[in-house]
């Protein structure tokens, strides 16, 4: 009986040993399998579930002050670039635009009148100089004939007095011309500083009027709408957000201990919780954010006091998603993902970046048309107020009218009517009261002048200096000299050169 008991103990020990051996073998096989998997697969991948889909969230803000009169889109709706999202009450901007147009027109007419006056003064100066030459030659003849008694001294004295008076008139006219030249010299009507200032004030008013319509800067879906009819908004007030869903990426927050082998250009696999195992997205590492979340926090930690906790920080890694996969399997910013990066691939330098800002989400041209339109309309207003004396019709006036019409028609019909660029009568605000107020376009009313050589070389009258004067005309001979015995008239500025 004792022998049977010993046999049973040996049998039990053998069974336990076999079981232990089987468990050990299973563990060894599992370890070997895991080691093989880690060596061939896991060691070449870095995985994290702290990764989320993100994209551009484009804010739409008011550019002008006004009361919201219409909200044209609701959340989840798709908008195209340039669509009108919100309209503001335009009455104040319309009135300011009219005032600016009036100031521009008045300034153009005032400056244009200076050019016309200068031309008239120039013509008067030329006539007086011509008359001065005639009197000078007469006086010279009288001087030569006086010694022979053919001409009396009184006749000669009268000629000299007349010559002196004409010289004074010429100097007065030259001073008048110089005063006008100081205001408009070296410019044209359209280039005059006063016109330029009024023009830019008009452009500002035109832009303010155009910005009563808030446009969509990019195409995308409306989200976070805050605009409400009746609200009074100021420039910079956020009205809504536009989310373009055709350009998204993943931000994977990796531990700093996992960044050693991460390089831009390495492939990645992303599983979005929205689709689970049904679809795996493929992406490419674009770059590493230059810092963890701590330095960019609202209140960065201060570890200089010595009171700190050593924790492993995480660094965001940007991974681009394939555009074709996004179109076939739409995702939204904020979705959770499980992301794996294949670190076995060489990739590029850790200092490089594959991110690009050359897509439609990074630029817009919807506001450029506003400035182009404002400048065109301003040119039309200027052309409609530049005229010659007594001309308000004819071919040149038609050209001026066509210039403004072309500027107004440069805005598409939807821009002028549907987008609020017309007044209640259906007429563009800049065309109101225009009537037949278009005039002749003239580039300049002053004839070309020779270069300014300075006062020392610009004779005030033909009796001073020689050569060509400032109008390009041949100057007269030297001043006439009084003959002996003829007294100088009291108050005369002409000195006798005869001893």
UniProtKB/TrEMBL annotation:
Entry GO terms, CC: cell envelope
Listed Basic and acidic residues bias regions: 424-435
Gene3D superfamilies: 2.40.30.170, 2.40.50.100
Domain Multidrug export protein EmrA/FarA alpha-helical hairpin: 93-211
UniProt GO BP: transmembrane transport
Membrane-spanning intervals of the chain: 20-39
Major localisation: other
Protein name, UniProt field: Putative Multidrug resistance protein A (Modular protein)
